[in-house]
Amino acid sequence: MRAVCIEEYGAARDVLLYKNDVPIPAISDDQVLLELHASAINPVDCAARSGYGQKIFATMWGELPLILGRDASGVVAKVGKNVRKFKPGDEVFAAAHIGCNAEYVAVDAAHVALKPRNLSHVEAASLPFVALTTWTALVDNAGLNASNTAGKKIIIPRAAGGVGSFAVQLMKAWGGYVVGLCSERNNELVQSLGADEVIDYTKTDFSTVLKDFDCAFDTVGRSSDFSTPDSHSAIGKSGDNFDEKLMSVLKRDADAVYVTVCSPKMVLADRYGLEAGAVKARQVFAQRQAVQEKLGRRYYWSFCNPSGDALGQISHLLEQEKIKPLVDRVYPLEDLVAAHEYCETKQAQGKIVIEIRKSTKT
Prior knowledge:
Helix content: 25-40%
Number of strands: 15
Shape: globular
Number of helices: 12
Mean pLDDT: 94
Low-confidence stretches: 228-239
CATH class of the largest domain: Alpha Beta
Structural class: alpha/beta
CATH superfamily of the largest domain: NAD(P)-binding Rossmann-like Domain
């Protein structure tokens, strides 16, 4: 099969290798083999390609060489003997652990859902990883859902990005009051997603004009938690206290919640090793959590939890058009280098999709 591999860590044009002779992966009894029509690029793919988080990722993915990519939309080609929910020919989408920069990928059946009927594979591929990153943070951790979000105030930075744009739409679909932070060029886009307020972070210190929020969804973090400045977005370059600014707008003693997808866990593991890094991460988390507990708030570090059940619920929202995909650019698989380089400019509005097979909306 065709695939793009890495055999070492580094810059996109130095390490991404397009190949035509990669073996099609075998599947276990609980997996399905997907014939991919489209995948997508996430900032974590670019970071992993550069070497970020390699000690933890090695325990999840194995050692080099690797095929990166976590978003999948395609057709079931084969099912393991224990799989009952899917059959060959089903159109599905999923957030795989790895391997989606290829024509075929093996995925746990529990992580797969039927593709929304109103979306093309290109559109569907733009969603699984960012949707489940958001779902894990706001639903599983923060405890927000269709029944309790109405009227709650949520602040979402980087609101024009992949995770941010999905989060804005999800919270609005459930009746939340959403404030999105973005640069001026993205104001109109974030408004079109339904945000009640849009603040240009380059001109306004949001922490001086906002208060009494129920939830802060941090997609930026603090710059000292990352090993290099360019692993951090422009929105956080104004200082090391972006997370503190977000927490400062939350209510006190009212069960408000701060949840971030930007923890120092990966960097600490890379710096100190798996065991020592894990100890340091627990210490840092406990210290930060304790500060917020004294203020009557909840504090979480969140990581994407692949889930076919959650994707099924998200699929219903997509079919009802309460949430719409946001695709910035589409590249063919052989142009993955250009896709990574564009992702690293941090200028994308929504997602960068990789079209692996030409397909039509079904």
